[in-house]
Amino acid sequence: MTKTLTAALVVSAGLLAGCTMTGPGNLKVHEALLYGSSQERLVWVYGNLGGSAQSSVKLGGTAAELRSQVQDPLAVPGTLSVNGKAVYRLGTSTLTPKLSVTRDTRGLFNVAMNEAGGTVYYTDGRTWTRLNAGTGSGVGGTPVSGLRGAGNLTDAEADALGTVLLNQGALAIAVLDPASVPDAPLSVEPAPGEYRRTALYVQAGVPTVTATTGTVTTTPGTPTGTAPTPGGRVNLTELASGSNASASTAAVQVATTQSALSALYNIAYGRQTGTPSVPSLPASDTVVGVFLGQRATGGYGVRVTGATAQDDTLTLTVTVTAPGPGSITTQALTSPWTIVRVPGRYRDVRVVDSLGRPFPVGTGGGEVR
């Protein structure tokens, strides 16, 4: 009896080991490989379950359960959920830096390095732009919907990926040759009728630097250099912004001298290689730096959206952004910041959010130098 049972178990194990996945009908697999600041492999599985509630495949040798798609920003028409998620996720290998982009206050770009050689996309956290050239300075851009046209992404995949990458501050993304990346295609069982690969390099915290000629005012109103009327709106010019300051805690720093402005730029660019030229500070102007402090991931940002003056008090309104649930975030320490210039000198500088609540500052915030 025991020998018979043992033999039966051996035969059963052998049958299971030799079992192959049947998979859904019309199986297709598309993947996006993210490198740089984001190191993640996103795999969309397309198929038809027919009359079944579920099916299964092997991805990279690992069995995965397929069911009807779930509600998720990465879910696209025709795809199935994988183990209860909209996409199958894996990590990617580390690559040497392949992209270096800055944006100036005119809205033009400087691409100092594009080792990938592919098309470059940029987002300020709200909209997407495709750069008109892969290298050079003073490069313009064309507004686009998400990452449409990037690699082998479908329009739906490009829109979905573009959506989940928003609200992470300024990002630049270069399209890589998928044949050049270290991660090989996943083995898929059963073999899909279509397999697409797109590889992207993500540069987080693209800094905004002062344009070499001219500036752009971000709030219409009083001309630059003109003092505001009491209680009125103040003309606001964004000088620079980024996400890699050396500030570890939230702070507001005010500069009214050229030396103080240089010190402010050193804080803002403290974790980056090199500091751009510090603009001249007119004797009648004030510069304010708003630092969000250190964050564990990307997806955070701070922006000054308005300025008003009452007697000798300047009030700046800021908007702080944070990554939403399920967002693809850059897995690196960040420290978002922005620097703005306003006409006039002030005894007090207040920074508040859109509801009028004070911006929380750490030690050393709000000092006029």
TrEMBL record:
Residues 286-343 form the PrcB C-terminal domain. This is PrcB C-terminal domain-containing protein.
